[in-house]
Amino acid sequence: MTLGYRPGTGVLHRAHPFTVLVLAGTVAVLAFTLPAPLGPMLLTAGTVAIAVAARVSRTLLTALAFAAPFWVFLVLIHVVFGDSPDRAVAVGSQISAVLVVFLMTLAAVHPGRLVDALLERGVPFHMAYLLVATLQSVPELQRRASAILDAQRCRGLRVRGSVWGRVRSVVPLAVPLVLGALGEVDDRALALEARGAAAGLRRTPLDPPHDRLAERVTRWALLGSVLGTIAWRIFA
Amino acid sequence: MIPLSSRLLALIPLAVGINLAMGKFAAALSLPLFLDTVGTVLVAALAGPWAAVATGVVSQIAFTVLDGKLMWMAFLPVQLGVALYAGLAARRGAFASPWRAAAAGLVLGLIAATLSWPIAFLLFGGVTAGGVTVVTTLLTAFGVPLKWAVYGASLSNDLLDKCVTFLLVHVVLISLPKRLSARFPAADRARGRA
Amino acid sequence: MTVALDGVRYRYPAADSDALRDVTLAFGAGDVTLVTGRLGAGCSTLLLVAAGLAPHVTGGARSGSVTTLGADPASDEGRRQVAGRIGFLLPTPWTQLSGMSYTVREEVAFGPANLGWPRDRIGRAVSGAMALVGIEHLADRDPRTLSGGELQRVMLAGITAMDPEVLLLDEPTLELDPEGARMVYRLLPALAREKTVVLATTDVDRAVEVATRVVLLDRGSVTADGAPDDVLGTDRAVALGCSTTVAEIARVAGHAAPFPLTVRAAVRRFAR
């Protein structure tokens, strides 16, 4: 089960990052505006078809793993303890459709290309930087969290027992993690400053993706379909 | 768009990382907590409300992206609420003592639960993240109408979660070596000794 | 002189004493200057002040004047003027990672891209820097999978790719193995022909082989400034522990100052 960008040659990989993002957003909104339960079900089928066509079908396995617990709870709440199976199917399909399209997006959009696309459109460097730097720092901090957990367990940290005791155990875990990170802020700030990241100059995108007319048309069409659906639901 | 200082550019990704890593600790200790706003609250205490808002926004995006579930973005207003409240509370020296911190945390828990309740109920039919949904399920099993089951579950989770979060940040602030706390001028105010 | 400090005093925030006291120094192209002293003498601080990073990023208070490349690098207009022209290498490679790159090539290109250079200029600068530092074979690797030594060399390439006029290196070889450290030092004399190169390190044994000038600091003040033999070959320098191992051996063995600083010099003097 993998999350995140995986190199590939499918149509989504070659597309402009914005197109893929607009597709994801469209599906996300349509999932909640199309009449349930049929609408979301068709949407889910559609996204699965796109995933297969774009050669990112491995993400479908991941989507299944993520969606399973939701389906379980939905069945429990709405079918076993409630009496609206329609609602369960509706919400379940909504969640599934969004999951699939989202994992597809993650797998097909290279973060660097996305940053370059944003920069080409004039998005301030700081915003793009924060997003990408976070994507890299999160796994790093999670690694450190695991290491601290192991180290403290070796020193006899209590992971079972009274609730209050366990709450107190959070302290020797959280404090080293946070203090370690704070200690690095200085060094990182110095390096960023020294490499011109805070100079306020217009950064050159290294590999800007080409935006073809067909893609622009597709994006507008997707947006149009969203607005059209919303209008239809309101007035019909 | 105010360009962020290199210091904030360095701090915010780390704070977001903290937000997303704390869940590991909660899980290992089998605690019904997320602790996913520790980083945001910390930044609020160290650098003020606006830096905390930036941290919250980036956190929500990162959480959405790395969890693979676009719908989490709907909870953005909750993150904003947390960030602003924490920033204002820090300005008033909420982290001066464990009691003040715990009290401020409880209030935030109430606010957070009230903010996330309509989103969880209206958009997701009450099904969100694991632990909370278990409580919701239990409550519906006892015949509680879904609307209130969701609110009850959110409340029980958020009150404890935000209270512990504020306590943690208090402990971190008093453990900060002088060398580090001097780098973040807002920290003194948060500790009640401006 | 590209870097001039005059009567500079600097204190870190919440510190009990000054890190630099009344420092008056000047650096220029043509020399590889080694700034050294005991731990805490203020060598790193000196470089940070010269780059304007102190007090701009570190906070604290500075008095006296600092003129680097014709401007005060800590002031707002000064920073704009010197952006990208002062290269600064920090001791730990991991914290210098841009956080935005997935290959070494992208990492080296981070600085030049931030300066807004056109893409072909960036490409040339990156290739040139990687060739200079000898890391072309790592070009497509993920920076996070590299060893400390390899990563520090990537960082050095990242700095030289910006073609700075002033190159400040703060303990650059801390993470490097002896061979890696030697590789870095050997690059400095060639760079110093056109640039101002200042190296702060306690790794005096290796650094002295390329240094043409040595500045000795003690508790924030300059205690000596001149040719390596004159500064490090003295009784005082060796007694303070700031000189090379060879010099220390010579002193303990009972010879008189000035002591030889390198093995080659010692052989020349003592082998008969």
Overall mean confidence score, pLDDT of chain A: 81
Q: Give the distance, in angstroms, between the N- and C-terminal Cα atoms of chain B.
A: 29 Å
Q: DSSP helix count of chain A?
A: 10
Most extensive chain interface and residues per partner? A-B, 73 and 59 residues
Tell me which oligomeric state these chains represent: heterotrimer
Residue fraction in strands of chain B: under 5%
- Low-pLDDT residue spans of chain B: none
Approximately what portion of the residues of chain A adopt beta-strand conformation?
A: under 5%
Which percent range fits the helix content of chain B?
A: over 70%
The rough form of chain B would be described as: globular
Kindly report the average pLDDT value of chain B.
81
Global Rg of chain B = 17 Å
Q: What do these coordinates show?
A:
The complex is a heterotrimer of chains A (236), B (194) and C (272). Chain A has helices at residues 11-14, 17-33, 38-53, 58-80, 85-108, 111-120, 125-154, 163-169, 171-194, 213-235. Chain A is mainly alpha-helical and 236 residues long. Chain A starts with 10 loop residues before the first helix and ends with a helix. Chain B is globular. The mean pLDDT of chain B is 81. Chain C has 272 residues and is an alpha/beta fold. Chain C contains twelve helices and nine strands. In chain C, strands 5-6-7-3-8-9 form a six-stranded mixed sheet, with helices on both faces. In chain C, strands 2-1-4 form a three-stranded antiparallel sheet, covered by helices on one side. In chain C, helix 4 (104-114) packs across helix 5 and helix 5 crosses helix 6. Chains in contact: A-B, A-C, B-C. Chains A and B meet through helix 2, helix 4, helix 5, helix 7 and helix 8 of A and helix 1, helix 3, helix 6 and helix 7 of B.
